[in-house]
Design brief:
32% helix, NADH Oxidase, TM1586_NiRdase, binds flavin mononucleotide, Nitroreductase-like, oxidoreductase activity, Putative nitroreductase TM1586 domain-containing protein
Length: 279
């Protein structure tokens, strides 16, 4: 599943795009995406499903731009660990789509009523008092679309002021590894393969570019964990564990690129999800 893709280059070139051409993704690429989804093998157990769906550009689904025809939803149960795995798995798909020349944008604050109209998924929970943006917060019964993304082609000319503002406000800047280390290990002492994987991890996208992941490396360099600080709260984003899952997927890809085998696990600890990589 991971072969034949330049993951490093894909991570470096992916950007959130908020202005799309109103044309569908070519059939061939849709097939490639479907077969990639069908063959995705993750290093942990999960219950995430990826659903492609068509949206109506004349109805508001994304707050900041019109939806292109093709879109994807990442659906799972709403406990913290499942939400984190939606981030991990969703990012692998988003990077694969990027490698096919498609543009995307992780989106948590979609309009739920419009999503349900174009992609019914709430079933018995339709009647509940649902949130306006995203599925809401906290653990609820059943499965929800944790995030969605448009899938299409960047409309480069005629970018509206709001899109330009979003792009510069949520900048592509990233923190340095040294700012993200939780214990006393110094960046310059890290084995090159771990440094490489952490460098890809720090480049992950996060809601409002908050980059709230922190890295802990054991003194023998055999165990690396990725989590947000205990007690961390995001001002606007209800599911910051999604972002930690995204970051963990970049780290995992980094180890894979360097041919390092590892055991991947995740658990909830002190109110947040901790990803553990044992080399
Ligand atoms: C989990 C998640 C949720 C996001 N939700 C939104 C959103 O609701 N609206 C939006 O405009 N951008 C959203 N973004 C995009 C981020 O603002 C963007 O990833 C970040 O600013 C970094 O920019 P980059 O993706 O271009 O590297 C989200 C990103 C992530 C990872």
């Amino acid at each position: 599943m991971l072969k034949n893709i330049d993951w490093e280059n894909t991570i470096n070139s992916r950007r959130s795009i908020r202005s799309f051409e109103m044309r569908p993704v070519e059939e061939e690429k849709m097939h490639m995406l479907q077969s990639f989804i069908g063959g995705m093998k993750m290093p942990f157990r999960h219950n995430v499903t990826i659903r492609m769906f068509k949206a109506n550009p004349n109805k508001k689904l994304y707050t900041a731009f019109s939806s292109p025809p093709d879109n994807v939803a990442f659906i799972t149960t709403t406990d913290n660990c499942s939400i984190a795995t939606a981030g991990f798995i969703g990012e692998i798909l988003i990077l694969y789509a990027t490698s096919l020349g498609l543009s995307t944008c992780w989106y948590g604050h979609y309009l739920l009523t419009e999503l349900e109209r174009v992609m019914p998924h709430l079933g018995a929970y339709t009647e509940l008092e649902n949130a306006k943006w995203g599925y809401g917060k906290g653990e609820v019964e059943g499965e929800r679309a944790i995030c969605i993304t448009p899938l299409g082609y960047w409309k480069q000319e005629g970018v509206r002021l709001i899109d330009r503002m979003q792009t510069s406000f949520f900048s592509h800047k990233r923190k340095q590894i040294s700012e993200l280390m939780e214990n006393d290990i110094k960046e310059e002492n890290l084995p090159p393969e771990i440094l490489y994987a952490l460098d890809l991890a720090r480049k992950a996208p996060s809601a409002a570019n908050r980059q709230h992941w922190r890295f802990t490396v054991s003194s023998d360099f055999k165990t690396i964990s990725i989590a947000m600080p205990v007690g961390y709260k995001h001002i606007k984003w209800e599911h910051p564990n999604v972002d930690i899952g995204i970051c963990a997927s970049h780290f995992w890809l980094g180890l894979k690129i360097k041919n390092i085998d590892c055991k991947v696990s995740l658990r909830e600890e002190q109110g947040r999800v901790v990803w553990i990589f044992e080399i």
